[in-house]
Amino acid sequence: MIRVRPVPLLAVVATGTAISMSVLAGWQRGGWLAERLVWVAIGVVLVAGAHLLPALCRSAPLSGRVVGAVLWLGCMAAASYGHATFFLLSQLHAGELRVSAIPVASVPVHRELTAVMADRASVTAELARADARRCTRDCPTWQIRRTSLAARLDALDAEAADVRRYQTIEDGNAERRVTARGDPVTSRLATFCGIPETRLDLFAGLVFAAVLEGVACLL
What we know:
Number of strands: 0
Structural class: mainly alpha
Order of helices and strands: HHHHHHH
Strand content: under 5%
Shape: rod-shaped
Low-confidence stretches: none
Distance between the termini: 24 Å
Helix content: over 70%
Largest sheet: none
Radius of gyration: 33 Å
């Protein structure tokens, strides 16, 4: 019967997880295929150095242990930075998926409210001039123009009301997208702590990375 030793198993799992995160982060950092492969190789080397240097330098002389400790700190910092990149990018991708799943209320193409109000002001001025003018001759034509301006003013008022309603729908869509983009726990924790959500995301990513690296180094 094969007996599973939990410490080596957990160490392998932690190192494998860290290497996988470094591979994904390095792959997303690069542009060309060669750049991606180099970033992936750098991440694997840094993770392996962070996890194995303490054990490799344990039996070395003092000078070797000092050099190993400096290199280990550098590897830990670089590996944690790569893991934080993975956490932030994964949260970004998750937010995009949540946003794409939100039903969006359709809004027809419409003019800006400022353009509608500018036309309304112009029509109002023309109607005021028509009302101030006394009818001395050709009164039917004057009355037709006055009625036309009044009808156009009513139409612009209705259009302005529709534009305001459309803007309310668009604002609601934008607010739902912003709410869905952020991680629910991070958003509430950022509100509770009174700190920006982006800063809390970075801090949480660094903490997760440090804990993972610490567990792997210890085991």
